[in-house]
Amino acid sequence: MLRKYGIVLIALPLMCALSACTQKEGADDAEALDAASIEVEPEKVSGEMVFIPAGEFILGTDDKEHYAYYPARKMDLHAFWIDKYEVTNMEFLDFSIENNYQAEGIKEGQDWHIFFTTSDKAKVPVVFITFNDAETYCKSKGKRLPTEFEWEKAARGTEGYKYPWGNEWDGSRSNTWESGYEAPIAVGSLNDVSPYGVVDMLGNVQEWTSTNYASYKGNPKKDPNARSNMRVVRGLSASYRGRLGSIYERSAYVPNALFNFGFRCARDATPDEIAEHQQAE
Q1: 42 Cβ partners below 8 Å, 6+ apart?
Q2: Which residues on neighbouring strands pair with residue 29, listed in sequence order?
Q3: Three-class SS string for the chain?
Q4: Domain limits, the chain
Q5: What is the pLDDT of residue 8?
Q6: Maximum mean pLDDT: which of 45-49, 116-120, 134-138
Q7: Four-way CATH pick for 49-280: 3.90.1580.10, 3.30.70.20, 3.10.105.10, 3.90.180.10
Q8: pLDDT tens sequence across 148-187
């Protein structure tokens, strides 16, 4: 059984080659060498959440060619929290063991375990998770799946950005086709960070939301995917061309779909939490 992995730092002594070391003639003591400081990336905290304040943001786009997310409009949302990172293989494994939970994919021979075969995949987002699997996990943590509107605000900020970091494409910042990884990688590996500090929302894996798929208000076209049994999936993945995509893209899938989908959780902010953040501003 895989165990929880922490970040273990092994301090290696700094050695200098004989050809590079010199001593002053007649000196009684050798000159001391100071160890170089090594900057270490902070450990990613399991279940860490980001506070998203109440207020308006821009949903969708006015590009009529993209009828699935047309038209753009301002939407006002309550304050909420959302997971900073996508739920990982290790987190889902811990949940499965603690709750004796069997994911729905095992019945189809596409259980998420087959993608978690080595320890180096512990911090990679869990995939081949159904909507029900994701919802059950979030409920076990006292959370829920985010709505697609919460997801877009957390990813896009209030300025209506096309990508989490702005409107200019940067192929090095997200795990989409351009990055060359061709598969999910450990959460937080790239600088795919939203204005609120939420990570990996454009690339890595697509994510389930709690929202039933429907056409946006004001859209004159009939969307064939607008059926009550379809759920909204957000974000792109390593197989999508990010340059041609955007953070406001949305897709529709049946809840038991088994693809390269992962998820993150959310929850409502309490009045005390809202007041605390207002005082800190």
Answers
A1: none
A2: none
A3: CCCCCCCCCCCCCCCCCHHHCCCCCCCCCCCCCCCCCCCCCCCCCCCCEEEECCEEEEECCCCCCCHHHCCCEEEEECCEEEECCCCEHHHHHHHHHHHCCCCHHHHHCCCHHHHCCCHHHCCCECCCCCHHHHHHHHHHCCCECCCHHHHHHHHHCCCCCCECCECCCCCCCCCCHHHCCCCCCCCCCCCCECCCCCECCCCCCEEEEEEECCCCCCCCCCCCCCCCCCEEEECCCCCCCHHHCCCCCEEEECCCCCCCEECCCEEECCHHHHHHHHHHC
A4: 49-280
A5: 27
A6: 134-138
A7: 3.90.1580.10
A8: 999 999 999 999 999 999 999 999 999 999 999 999 999 9
